[in-house]
Write a structure and sequence with these properties.
Elements: E1 4-7, E2 10-13, E3 23-25, H1 29-32, H2 36-45, E4 51-62, E5 69-76, E6 82-83, E7 95-104, H3 105-108, H4 112-122, H5 137-153, H6 159-163, H7 181-188, E8 200-209, H8 212-218, E9 224-231, H9 234-251, E10 267-268, H10 272-307, E11 311-318, E12 320-329, E13 332-341, E14 344-345, E15 364-367, E16 375-379, H11 385-388, E17 389-390, H12 400-406, H13 409-418, E18 422-424, H14 428-433, H15 442-451, E19 456-468
Parallel strand pairs: 3-4, 18-19
Antiparallel strand pairs: 1-2, 2-3, 4-5, 5-13, 6-10, 7-9, 7-11, 8-9, 8-19, 12-13, 14-17, 15-16, 16-19
Helix pairs in contact: 4-10, 5-10, 7-9, 9-10
Length: about 475
């Protein structure tokens, strides 16, 4: 793949063939070494009808379904722009929630292992059913409509949780009627569960603060204990993506749309199929928000019992969504459908969608690392490119099968615990699949994101204990 370095941590893939816009990749040369197949997907995304500015990729880019993971693309809604489920992915509203404890590392040390045992017992995980909250069909509809708001109304949280959650805890315009029975069946028994794969609940320590004023506004300080939760919409979101990819694949010909990869199936945002997908996607996003809300409440109970500590929400943000936003393009504001797949929005100071207590400092951006490595808290910056988007994590470089062949789960746990990290896995195989070596260097990814002008570092967090899906 030919590309040209046009600035610090910025590479351009020139237009060719059916590309409507160039490709722009934010990365270092080292991070691009294993991205050749993913760059082909950047080119494919650049052919989508209505795409504006560029087909963007973040430093943690890797191969995905249709879009690369780490892909960002916006389409002009009023000019026939399309929405593509492949630009969101199967785990709709997969995202990260960070909570800060009112204690430091020293206070936690005497109770760390009973705390981790307690978390391991109350946090449902694994591929199958089993969640914190058992719902009726009517209650599930309310979750799909109201997300974290409904959970808080039912006593699972506090009002501040909604102020510090993207969209105030619920994506508007959810259309429950677009969520079919099979998706509902899969979602009924999984509200408040991690799932499997790279999902986790991690107890962390703030190891370094880069900007004390912004960290304080977020509610963070050096050596403070935190809890980071990474999960999404489970089987319900997967089913919605599958259903709407099939529907759009059948409908594309009616709109005269052709794509280089059927995984990029799409229809105009304002088409019946486009509106149906966005309504179902919003419902799945609300499910994901409620999922993290319930897990946070479970963690709060264990922290109160074992550490006599209180957890306060720093922020909750998704990294798999398509959202209608207004951004300037070619000198004028345009109504866009912004796809972020494995990419996090990073709104700057002053952005009207930020809560009042964060507007002066910008949006918290939560970047999970891997077991045994750091995670980062960033903030949005003025003039951020790619429609105010940045990376979402470390980015995988090794398949799960490859990872499991490099190390055994018991061996990995022993290594992590020798480093002072208490590990509570659901299976040895699943733990091995998530060995840190299976991922890019998260510090290099964050440095590239900051160097490209997408965000700014606020704090670095290191793990004390991990509950793995």
């Amino acid at each position: 793949m030919e590309y040209v370095e046009e600035g610090p941590y910025r590479f351009r893939i020139g237009r060719r063939g059916d590309m409507r816009v160039p490709g722009v990749v934010f990365a270092s040369r080292a991070l691009l070494r294993d991205a050749e197949k993913s760059l082909e997907q950047v080119v494919n995304v650049a052919t989508l009808p209505g795409i504006v500015s560029a087909s963007y990729a973040m430093p943690d880019i890797h191969w995905g379904y249709g879009f690369p993971i780490g892909g960002v693309a916006a389409t002009a809604i009023d000019e026939g722009g399309v929405v593509s489920p492949g630009g969101v992915g199967f785990d709709i509203s997969c995202g990260v929630r960070l909570l800060a404890a009112d204690c430091d590392r020293r206070a936690l040390d005497p109770v760390l292992h009973p705390l981790m045992d307690g978390l391991g017992q109350v946090i449902p995980r694994g591929a199958g059913p089993g969640g914190v909250w058992r719902l009726s069909s009517r209650e599930l509809e309310r979750v799909l409509q109201g997300g974290s708001r409904y959970a808080v109304e039912e006593g699972h949280g506090e009002e501040r949780d909604l102020r510090r959650c993207e969209d105030g805890g619920a994506v508007p315009d959810a259309d429950v009627d677009q969520v079919n029975e099979r998706a509902r069946e899969r979602g009924l028994g999984q509200v408040g569960s991690l799932g499997s794969g790279n999902h986790f609940l991690e107890v962390q320590r703030v190891a370094e603060v880069y900007d004390e004023a912004v960290a304080a506004a977020f509610g963070l300080a050096a050596d403070q204990v935190c809890v980071m939760i990474h999960c999404g919409s489970r089987g319900l979101g997967h089913q919605i993506c599958s259903d709407h990819v099939r529907a759009m694949d059948k409908a594309m010909a009616r709109y005269g749309i052709g794509v280089p990869d059927r995984q990029l199936a799409c229809t105009p945002v304002d088409s019946p199929e486009g509106r149906a997908y966005l309504g179902a996607m919003a419902a799945a996003a609300n499910y994901g928000r409620a999922n993290r809300q319930l897990l946070a409440q479970a963690a709060r109970r264990v922290f109160r019992r074992e550490a006599e500590a209180r957890l306060t929400l720093v922020y909750d943000v998704s990294h798999n969504l398509a959202k209608v936003e207004t951004h300037p393009v070619d000198g004028r504001p345009r109504r866009l459908c912004v796809h972020r797949k494995g990419a996090t929005r990073a709104f700057p100071p002053g952005h009207p969608e930020l809560p009042a207590d964060l507007r002066a400092v910008g949006q918290p951006v939560l970047i999970p690392g891997t077991m045994g490595t750091a995670s980062y808290v960033l903030t949005g910056v003025p003039g951020g490119d790619a429609f105010h988007s940045t990376c979402h994590g470390a980015g995988r470089v090794m398949s799960r099968h490859q990872a499991a062949r490099t190390i055994g789960g018991k061996q990995l746990r022993a290594r992590l615990e020798a480093d002072g990290i208490a590990v509570r896995p659901v299976s040895w195989r699943g733990l091995a699949e998530e060995t840190p070596e299976a991922y890019k260097d998260v510090t290099a990814v964050v440095e590239a994101s900051e160097g490209a002008g997408l965000c700014r570092k606020v704090a670095r967090l290191v793990p004390l204990g991990v509950v793995k899906g």
